[in-house]
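A.,

Following up on our hallway conversation. Structure tokens first:
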């Protein structure tokens, strides 16, 4: 089985990001997967510090129950469940048929570039 990779990008032009991802998907060999955010606010709002820790704890471990994941992270089960749900909606984690959760990616790369916007006159 080929190791999956994920590239997280920040591109306000979501159409361009979608076209770029589509181009990669047309390649003959696996080029990885892409998750784009339109703004830094959206990226950091959805991928909080605790959610990053959760993803990192899951990478390479195989499937874990939410309860076991909460135990390993020293966190409340309810809050971990909420974070797992948010991460599953983004595709960063996946649920198994037996109710577990796993991170299918062997490598996650965040491509974050911020640039100055021209100031507008008041």
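Then the amino acids I'd put at each of the 122 positions:
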């Amino acid at each position: 089985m080929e190791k999956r990779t994920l590239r997280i990008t920040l591109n306000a032009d979501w159409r361009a990001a979608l076209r770029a991802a589509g181009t990669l998907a047309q390649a003959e060999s696996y080029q990885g997967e892409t998750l784009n955010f339109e703004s830094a606010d959206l990226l950091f709002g959805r991928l909080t510090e605790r959610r990053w820790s959760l993803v990192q704890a899951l990478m390479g471990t195989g499937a874990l129950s939410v309860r076991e994941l909460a135990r390993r992270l020293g966190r409340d089960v309810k809050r971990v469940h909420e974070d797992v749900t948010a991460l599953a909606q983004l595709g960063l984690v996946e649920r198994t048929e037996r109710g577990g959760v796993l991170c299918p990616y062997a490598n996650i790369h965040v491509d974050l570039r911020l640039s100055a916007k021209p100031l507008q006159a008041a």
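The first helix runs from residue 14 to 25. Curious whether your intuition agrees with the design.

B.
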